[in-house]
Amino acid sequence: MAGMPDLGAILTAMVTPFDAQLRVDEEATVALLEHLIAHGSDGVVACGTTGEAATLTDEEHLRVVELAVETLRGRGTVVAGVGSNDTRHAVELTERATALGADAMLHVTPYYNRPNRRGIVAHFEACAAATDKPIVLYNIPARTGVDMPNDLLAELAERIDNVVAVKQANNDNLAPIEGLQLYAGNDDVLCETLELGGAGGICVASHVVGDEMRRMVDEPERRCEIDAGLRDIYEALSVTTNPIGVKTALRLLGHRVGGLRLPMVEADERETAVIRAALERHGLLATVA
Length: 289
What we know:
By secondary structure, the protein is an alpha/beta fold. Helices cover 43% and strands 13% of the residues. It has a single domain, classed as Aldolase class I (TIM Barrel), CATH 3.20.20.70. The N and C termini lie far apart (44 Å).
C-alpha cells in the first residue's frame, strides 16, 4: 500500500522469558530475539498478549521493549505492545516506548471498561497523539469484550494519520480495510490474509515454525500447501490458552523461556502430549540434542 510503513510480513508476538523466580530473564530474551530473527521473522511484537504484558510491571515491560530495540536495531522491526484499558496509562507507555526507539506501537481495544464507539475513537486519538510512530490497532474481542467492526477501523484510519494497520484477531471480520494494512491476528488465517493482499501476520507459531511461515510470504504459489502442513501446529499451540502452548513448545525444543505468571498455569499432561506429538510429527524434536 503506497505511503505505508514497511513493518514486515512475519512479526512474532514474542513470549517473555522468565527465570526460575519468574523474573524477566534478559539473557534468554536476547537469545530468543536472535532465534526469531534468524528463523523467518521480520521483527517482533514485544509485550503483547503472548508476552504476558498483563502481568508485567511497567519497568519490566519497557525493559523488554528496550532489549528488543537494542538487539534488533537495523535487523528487525520492534512493535511495542503499549495498550491499556486506562487511556492515561496507554499514553504513558506509548511515550516511553517511543523514547526507547520502538518502530511502531500496538494498541489493543480498551478491555473490561467496554467503551462505546465514541470512547474507542477518543482513546485511540489520545494514544496516537502521544507518538510520531505508526499505530497498529489490535482487535481481539475474545479477550477485550469489545469488537471493532470494519467500518470503525476504517473511520479510525481516516481520522488519525498515524493509525496505519490492524492486527485482526476476529476471523469473522477478516477483510481489506481502506487506509489500513491488514495483519492476521490468528495463525490459522495467515494464508487467507496474504491471499487477500494483507501485509502479513502477527504470529505465535513463528516461534517454532518461523521458516515455514516465512515461505508462505516468499513462495505464494505454494502458500496454501505450506499452510495445510502447519495446521496441526496451529491447533496444538491452541490446545489451551495462549501463551501456555507456545511456552511449552519452546521449552520442549530447548529454549530457555521459563514458566508463566499467574493466573496462567502450566500445560497439563494431556496438553503437553498434544504439543509434543505435533512437534514430533514435524521432525522438530529430532533436532533437539
